[in-house]
Amino acid sequence: MGVKTYQLMVPYWPDIAKNRSETKADIEFAQTFCLQEEDCFSRSLASAEDENTRIVRTNLRDEILKLKQEQGKNILSGRCEYSLTTYRAWPD
């Protein structure tokens, strides 16, 4: 995700998971969100607010290609324009 998405998602979802102050669906999403490892692509963000986030300052395309080589599940993008434009050019 990009820095703007990161700054919107954290601390919002961890707070929902902790306080259980929303709907059941929101709480379940928040709990799942808090368990996920995340990469935040940013040249300006100094550090992450949570321990599950890694700040990536290298080339987005190169980093995604490296991630695709790792074991695991699908990659979820926090920005729609990446999935519509850039991902299309990347090999599976």
Question: How is this structure best described in words?
Answer:
With 92 residues, the protein is mainly alpha-helical. It is 48% helix and 9% strand. It has 5 helices and 2 strands. The chain has helices at 3-9, 12-19, 24-35, 60-69, 80-86; strands at 38-41, 53-56. It has a two-stranded parallel sheet. 10% of the residues are buried. Mean pLDDT is 78; it is low at 80-92.
Brief account:
With 92 residues, the chain is mainly α. The chain has helices at residues 3-9, 12-19, 24-35, 60-69, 80-86, and strands spanning 38-41, 53-56.
Search tags:
92 residues; mainly alpha; two-stranded parallel ribbon; 5 helices; disordered C terminus
How are the SSEs ordered, and which strands pair?
Layout: H1 3-9, H2 12-19, H3 24-35, E1 38-41, E2 53-56, H4 60-69, H5 80-86
Parallel strand pairs: 1-2
